[in-house]
Amino acid sequence: MIRALKSSEVTVHRDVRLRALRESPEAFGQTFDEVDCEPISYWKNQTEAVTALGRNVMFLACEGKDVGGMIYGLRDPQDKNSGRIGGMWVAASLRRQGIGRALLEAVLDWAEGHDLHQVCLWVSIKNTAAINL
Fold first, then answer.
1. Can you give the residue ranges of every domain in the chain?
2. Taking a C-beta distance cutoff of 8 angstroms, is the pair 104, 49 a contact?
3. pTM score of the predicted model
4. pLDDT digits (tens, 9 = 90+) for 67-76
5. Within its chain, how far is the Cα of 69 from the centroid?
6. Handedness of CA 92, 98, 103, 104 (dihedral sign)
7. Which fold has domain 2-132?
């Protein structure tokens, strides 16, 4: 099931982001060590930013309470008609099952519903899997 992160799910956000950074460090601009030491206030701010109603979204791929994937949809702060996709990750054990595509489609549907006419992929150049998707 693909669903949006709720603003109250600070711990969920922290846990999935740290898991992604640990498992797939080459896919992100940050490292696990850079953000693991951040206080809960950092994670509250990050969660508020990616759940800002009408502005940003974070989708999770869930099976029950287990989170096996994530993706961010972010509105461009300078251009109200543009956005970007970033922070995409699917657990290694769940890859090649259509989860990445489902996450990407959720963000694209969100972008269309918010009248974003252009959406760019914000990704590390080393993340060929995300680029190919």
1. 2-132
2. no
3. 0.91
4. 999 999 999 9
5. 8
6. positive
7. Aminopeptidase (3.40.630)
